[in-house]
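Private note to self, pasted from the team thread so I don't lose it. Backbone tokens:
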């Protein structure tokens, strides 16, 4: 029997059909070991020794694999054909060697770029040894990511309370986004004018020409800077005569783009299909692993993590045949097309992403796929086919014109192009990040020396159009344009782009708004901190250089330990250099670096950092465990606070001081709109402890009026007595949103507006539903599911539903379930894994065991207790594991 190891069960099922009864294909379900998420898993002092941990799920699967290997003749490692795939094979091999089940069994490594019968059988016929340099590159990358995350993140926690974590690749991607936002904020629009002449040929055919020169001087796009200049040129052109100086037409070729790499697929799927990078990779993974078509499961595309742009010879031949059949022989180029990549640090070990069978047209497989799969397959098929089609032939025409006035002359030019042969345009055109269509403008036929007249085609437009414009700042990055930029700079690798973008969003460092990546204040502060004190490690060139070193390790040209030693020597020194920095010094640096964002110029010459509430206070960045805000240097005498910066849409209207909305009819006190560190709120009066209410989600400061403010200040509202026990039900808005409350039980409402209208029947239903789910107020929630006693420590393990979502509980340890997990499907195995992980992060303080000699050294015991408490305080502030780029 031959045992074959792959990553996924879907892949295993497909491959098992191809290999027959002499083979048993087992899935590892991805990585079987990882570095424990705690400090000390990589040991620089022990030449970067790594402590690997097998989780409970993987332990069970490895036991199954080990039992199967015991009775096998041969072990075949058939994981993915990239660095991660090589690493998984290495981990499996290491574990099996420790279990001593291999003995003298033959171990082989096979790789294939597509899950088709021919590709699998060919791979099995050509096994190789494990690629040690590729494994070394994985170990180096894993260690680097771990060391950066677990060294930088604690520094962040100490110097910037409320900050979360930092990572090697994500921090650089975040810097790109933040740098672009800073460019936008400091951008000063420049006024310019464009002038177009609506002209007609002697035959009456209309077209437009733009001014390119006036009075002997060339005019560029931004050279007409005022209305006066534009008016002078427009006046001259209105009475001028027009003559064609020259007409030049020349054919040009537009060549097709190469087949998809990982990054270009993510970019194009974002532009054309609206897919996030993570969604693109999920769908592509399914197409690669196999879809059942006509009773047979087969992979529809080749491996989707690649930066190569070449495709196999047989695929080129198939493409040329399909092109000839579907479009005609004139769409088949004389010679096949071959491509090479221009991306920095690209590795072309694998084929580009292409269909495994180009005769399998999108319309033939659409009924077997879900909508997203069908769309992505069609995109990949069209791109691959177009890459082997004939070029498009365009004719570009340029008409140069002279306008002669009484004393001055002007030069004008009209340009356009016509598609003479559509070539690959017949099937596919690459998406663009703008809306320009330079091939759609067609010019009429006109001869040299011809006289032209002014006049528009419909008589509505002026003969001479002068329009004012302003330059615009560079656009924010989209996921597509950020991936493109990272690839150009050589930052990250195909397998990391999607997870990098997702991590930035999960950490609340960026938000996706109208497909644009907008940095949040958390992300900007972390970036500013790293730029101030660890600038070298988030430089684009440094990160790209490190990627080059990792590539050289893959090629066997560098020692992975030498790379780690050199990096760690400088990096650990940089960390040591800022350990003694005071938080005040950090804040001063961030105030300077973030000044355009947090202290924008008011435009009236006044100091943007002057406190609007007191006479001599200075505004400064403040940090707390809840995040950052702007406060006055005269605190506590002056309690002025606001959010970091105005949002630009009026949301921070109250930032510069209270806005009186009116008077409360009952008390006569002023009702004001204000802004604090947690956002806008309304306040009644000016007493020492006035009544306040924050604006709920969905309510904006510009829309606030006296009526709405009084509604908020009137909360909580009594809904009525509960029909069962007569106790009052109230409605209000808390930090977790709108709710109804009865006898300690809180039930969420759908919107803040419902708080003011909810009736007794709706409230009773909501409370009953919450109690049915186990909700019992702010105390310990009732158990949703009892899993049994802890096998080692004893005590019940339960699944509960808390204010932050479902979690597993054992004693004093509460471990949140991963997002999307159904609490009713959680197993004891999963619960033990989550509880162990939480405990390793300091999730609970354990009482020290009593010591016989404790009374002899009370001073030492007290000092130790203080130290332990301090450590626990630092650990609890993190709230999560530091960034780790490989996770």
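Design output:
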């Amino acid at each position: 029997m031959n045992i074959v190891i792959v990553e996924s069960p879907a892949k295993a099922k497909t491959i098992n059909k191809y290999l027959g009864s002499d083979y048993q294909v087992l899935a590892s379900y991805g990585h079987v070991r990882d570095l424990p998420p705690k400090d000390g898993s990589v040991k620089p002092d022990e030449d970067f020794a790594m402590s690997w941990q097998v989780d409970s799920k993987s332990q069970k699967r490895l036991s199954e694999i080990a039992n199967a290997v015991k009775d096998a003749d041969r072990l075949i490692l058939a994981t993915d054909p990239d660095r991660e795939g090589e690493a998984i094979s290495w981990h499996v091999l290491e574990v099996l060697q420790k279990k001593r089940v291999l003995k003298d069994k033959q171990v082989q490594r096979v790789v294939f770029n597509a899950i088709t019968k021919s590709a699998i059988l060919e791979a099995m016929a050509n096994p190789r040894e494990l690629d040690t340099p590729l494994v070394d590159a994985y170990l180096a990358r894993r260690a680097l990511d771990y060391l950066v995350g677990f060294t930088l993140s604690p520094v962040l926690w100490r110097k910037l309370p409320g900050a979360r974590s930092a990572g090697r690749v994500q921090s650089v991607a975040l810097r790109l986004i933040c740098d672009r936002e800073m460019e936008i904020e400091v951008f000063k629009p420049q006024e310019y004018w464009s002038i177009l002449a609506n002209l007609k040929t002697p035959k009456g055919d209309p077209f437009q020409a733009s001014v390119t020169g006036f009075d002997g001087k060339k005019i560029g796009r931004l050279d007409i800077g005022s209305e006066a200049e534009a008016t002078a040129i427009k006046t001259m052109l209105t009475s001028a005569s027009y003559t064609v100086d020259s007409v030049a037409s020349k054919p040009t070729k537009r060549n097709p783009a190469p087949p998809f790499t990982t990054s270009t697929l993510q970019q194009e799927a974002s532009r054309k299909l609206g897919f996030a990078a993570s969604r693109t990779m999920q769908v592509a993974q399914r197409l690669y692993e196999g879809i059942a078509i006509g009773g047979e499961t087969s992979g529809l595309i080749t491996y989707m993590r690649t930066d190569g742009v070449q495709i196999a010879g047989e695929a080129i031949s198939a493409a040329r045949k399909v092109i000839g059949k579907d479009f005609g022989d004139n769409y088949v180029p004389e010679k096949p097309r071959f491509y090479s990549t221009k991306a920095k640090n690209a590795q072309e070990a694998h084929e580009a992403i292409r269909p495994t069978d180009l005769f399998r047209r999108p319309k033939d497989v659409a009924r077997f796929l879900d909508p997203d799969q069908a769309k992505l397959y069609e995109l990949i098929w069209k791109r691959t086919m177009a890459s082997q089609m004939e070029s498009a032939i365009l004719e570009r025409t340029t008409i140069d014109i002279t306008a002669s006035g009484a004393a001055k002359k002007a030069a004008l030019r009209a340009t356009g192009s016509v598609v003479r042969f559509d070539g690959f345009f017949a099937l596919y055109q690459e998406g663009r990040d703008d809306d320009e269509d330079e091939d759609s403008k067609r010019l009429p036929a006109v001869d040299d020396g011809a006289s032209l007249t002014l006049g528009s085609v419909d008589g509505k437009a002026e003969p001479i159009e002068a329009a004012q414009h302003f330059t615009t700042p560079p656009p924010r990055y989209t996921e597509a344009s950020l991936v493109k930029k990272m690839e150009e700079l050589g930052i990250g690798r195909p397998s990391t782009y999607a997870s990098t973008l997702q991590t930035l969003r999960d950490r609340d460092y960026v938000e996706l708004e109208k497909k644009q990546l907008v940095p949040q204040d958390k992300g900007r502060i972390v970036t500013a901190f790293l730029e101030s004190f660890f600038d070298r490690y988030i430089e684009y060139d440094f990160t790209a250089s490190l990627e080059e070193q990792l590539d050289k390790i893959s090629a066997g040209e560098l020692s992975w330990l030498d790379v780690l030693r050199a990096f760690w020597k400088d990096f650990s020194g940089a960390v040591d250099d800022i350990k003694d920095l005071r938080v005040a010094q950090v804040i001063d640096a961030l105030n300077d670096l973030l000044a355009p964002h947090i202290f924008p110029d008011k435009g009236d010459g006044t100091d943007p950092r002057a406190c609007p509430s007191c006479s001599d206070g200075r505004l400064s960045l403040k940090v707390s465990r809840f995040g950052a805000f702007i406060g006055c240097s005269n605190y506590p005498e002056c309690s002025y606070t606001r959010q970091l910066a105005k949002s630009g849409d009026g949301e921070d209207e109250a930032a510069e001081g209270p806005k009186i909305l009116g008077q409360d009819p009952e008390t006569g006190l002023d009702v004001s709109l204000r802004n604090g560190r947690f956002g806008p709120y309304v306040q009644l009066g000016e007493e020492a402890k006035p009544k306040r209410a924050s604006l709920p989600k969905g309510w904006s400061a510009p829309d606030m009026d006296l009526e709405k403010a009084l509604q908020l200040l009137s909360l909580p509202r009594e809904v009525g007595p509960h029909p069962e026990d007569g106790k009052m039900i109230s409605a209000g808005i808390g930090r977790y949103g709108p709710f109804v409350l009865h006898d300690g039980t809180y039930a969420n409402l759908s919107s803040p507006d419902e708080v003011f209208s909810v009736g007794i029947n709706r409230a009773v239903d909501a409370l009953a539903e919450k109690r049915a789910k186990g909700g019992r107020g702010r105390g310990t929630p009732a158990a949703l599911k009892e899993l049994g006693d802890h096998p080692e420590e004893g005590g019940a393990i339960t699944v509960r539903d808390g204010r932050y979502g479902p979690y597993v509980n054992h004693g004093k340890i509460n471990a949140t379930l991963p997002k999307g997990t159904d609490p009713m499907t959680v197993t004891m195995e999963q619960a033990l894994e989550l509880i162990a992980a939480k405990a390793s992060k300091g999730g609970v303080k354990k009482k020290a065991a009593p010591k016989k000699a404790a009374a002899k050294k009370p001073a030492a015991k007290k000092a130790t207790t203080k130290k332990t408490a301090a450590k626990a305080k630092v650990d609890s502030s993190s709230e999560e594991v530091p960034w780790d780029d490989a996770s």
